[in-house]
Amino acid sequence: MDSKVDLESSRGYLATSSDAKPKPPSSLARNMGRVLLTFVLACFLVTLTNARRCTHPHPAQSRVDKILSETPLIDGHDDLPIFIREFFGNHIYGDDFRIPFTEGNLLGHVDLPRLAEGKVGGTFWSVFVECPKNWSDFSDATYATSVRQTIEQVDVMLRLQQAYPNVFSEPPNGTTALQAFKEGKIISPLGIEGLHSIGNSLAHLRSFYDRGVAYATLTHNCHNRYADAALVEIPGGIKKADPVWHGVSEAGKDLVFEMNRLGMIVDLSHVSVDTMRDVLGAGKDDWTGSRAPVMFSHSSAYAVCPHPRNVPDDVLELVKARNSVVMVNFSPDFISCTASDDPNGLPELDPENATLEHVVDHIMYIGNLIGFDHVGLGSDFDGIPTVPRGLEDVSKYPDLIAEL
């Protein structure tokens, strides 16, 4: 989810195109299943790449169907929960939501028929809530509403999973995820988008983990007491952020270690480049960063589109060195752009080239640079007001795979 998206004003666009420092973690090894969930899609892309090298008597669609039936396509970031909050007040049992969600034509990018048509194997469902208006004040009072709303967003997604138990898995681990896929269910972990959602409390972090939150994005479009963001919100928009911590703060180091201890994945989408480098062990001091692989749940390649939200080449090399993954975002803002002298530090958008093919350019760029083990998909569906031509909603994943 990105702050440039106003879901209420985007109603006409959504369905159209264009704590003390912890000891070394004794439980990390047995909790790595949650981390390994992130890399299932990397295996999928390797399978796809190998398939392209082989002669095959069947047309491309048959090959796509075979791949998606055998290997789960996992989306690193989908904003269905905040869509439900904004448009339905988190009421999922009434006919106004239930009928279009189950039968099709729900406003937005996701419903059950389109998930089935897209052969979606798994999704990290984002339990996003907005940054506080006074985000520069890191007090408990500032974050109280954010914590409450995040609890509500976790609740609505868990209720949705319970309402459709034959469609969505319960929050999985590395073992139960693959079993859920074999049973025809969508693997359904949750993800927090910005640590304003936990306030200033690692107890909240642990509580969310216990309720199925598999990853936490360190920031959204606001700094917090743990890390610097890439962007911050200003009246009427966003701008490239000036640093507060120049990366990860001392409190943030403790938080990353606690996430490692739990087995919760550190997500570096939305963070500043300094924060990326710190967590990947190439930062401002002798801190070695995360002890476990990390993810970028919905970010693209800076070399292809020079947006502060994207990942530069030197960080991509660190991603490879740390056996981590970048899951390519579909937002036109981060897919198709050129450098500019904008005073807010943002590139010039190029909507004409916001296409499925340009998403493929990002995937191929990252894969060719650091290997296809380290690239995945993180659509940001239901959190973006416009989409690339050819990738209008979750039903279009087979078209993307066919293009690859």
TrEMBL record:
UniProt-listed InterPro entries: Metal_Hydrolase, Pept_M19
CDD domains noted in UniProt: rDP_like
Annotated keywords: Dipeptidase, Hydrolase, Metal-binding, Metalloprotease, Protease, Zinc
GO biological process per UniProt: proteolysis
Gene Ontology MF terms: metal ion binding; metallodipeptidase activity
Cofactors: Zn(2+)
Top EC class of this enzyme: hydrolase
Region (Disordered) residue spans: 1-27
UniProt EC number: 3.4.13.19
Domain of life: Eukaryota
Pfam families assigned to the protein according to its UniProt record, in alphabetical order: Peptidase_M19
Catalyzed chemical reaction(s): an L-aminoacyl-L-amino acid + H2O = 2 an L-alpha-amino acid
Family: Belongs to the metallo-dependent hydrolases superfamily. Peptidase M19 family.
Name the record gives this protein: Dipeptidase
Organism: Aspergillus welwitschiae
